[in-house]
Amino acid sequence: ANLAGLNAIGQSTLLLFFCLGSHALLGAIDDWQGIKGIRGRGEGMSARMKSIFQLIFATLIALVLYYGPPQWDYVGVPGVKDFYQIGFWIIPVTVFVIVGMSNAVNLTDGIDSLAGSVTSIAFACYGLIAFLQNQIYLVAFCFTLVGAILAFLWYNAHPAQLFMGDTGSLALGATLGLVAIMTGQWLLLPIVGFVLLAETLSVMIQVSYFKLTKRLYGEGRRVFRMTPIHHHFELLGWSEMQVKERFWLISVLSGMLGVALALL
Fold this sequence. Notes:
two-stranded antiparallel ribbon; mainly alpha
């Protein structure tokens, strides 16, 4: 197929669908085990087993990016027009970004429509960045996902009739990470996905501080009232709608900043 004079279907699109499908399958197995209570009531796949499969999928994707034509091993630096080739280092970077983003979206999925809205904004922003690069197939993929997420959000709005679960969160997070890698603008991911970063860092800070203070003082202490951080704001008195709306606004602003930096 051809769109705007450019090839719209190719190996890169297949890789995106592999990333989406493999992580959706992993999440579906986790959700199914949780529903069936195979490991106990409400418990899905073990964190260790899930992490192993995430690493396997991410490594396979990274190897295809590096060794398969065309070779994606570039990074764009905000404010610098040129892209820089980083060679073999794209493999560990890709694994880190894909695994990190899949877990970040999973952590964000704690309030109705929050993860869906944040990821749809991020995909739209990277779709614009891909458009500026004339990666038409990537543009089509990103905005197709945006449309699918918006359709899901119609039923995920509070009170939710449908839930994303690990099936959606792992798939969307991993695919967002891959899209960022394929645009070469993965350094902008902490900005475009600022809310996702904040959710993840809040958990890491909370766990690390709790363990450190337990070792030093004999009892664990907390930085936040509860993590991920959207629960912290709920306990401060924000309503669920206030948390969602303010996080959406932050996502829009950070996404606009990310696109603007990509233009420099």
